[in-house]
Amino acid sequence: MTVVGFLTVAPAQESMSGEIAKAVEALEGFDVSYEVTGMGTVIEAEDSATLFDAASAAHEAVDSNRVVTSLKIDDKRGTEQTARGKVESVEKHLGREGRGD
């Protein structure tokens, strides 16, 4: 089983990218795959416990007086899924890539 999550960790300050990089770096300590996007990070793990632990570490890695973290999880039990597979399913229905210019 693969659990797919979308994680956003944001320090409440003007310049965020350096602190976000610390959060992303914290994911390296876990058995997860991830992809950073412009609005958050897609994470895949074998189970929800690993995903929660990785998200917690990312949250704690940010050095700010205030950190806002959101985690959205798709735990489709009994079925193998990947974030890329979910995109491919939508693209199949579109008949094209799921992006525009």
From TrEMBL:
This is MTH1187 family thiamine-binding protein. Belongs to the UPF0045 family. GO terms for cellular component: cytosol. It comes from Halorutilus salinus. NCBIfam families: MTH1187 family thiamine-binding protein (TIGR00106). Pfam families: Thiamine_BP (PF01910). InterPro entries: MTH1187/YkoF-like, Thiamine_BP, UPF0045_domain. Residues 77-101 are annotated as: Disordered. Residues 7-91 form the Thiamine-binding protein domain. It comes from the Archaea.
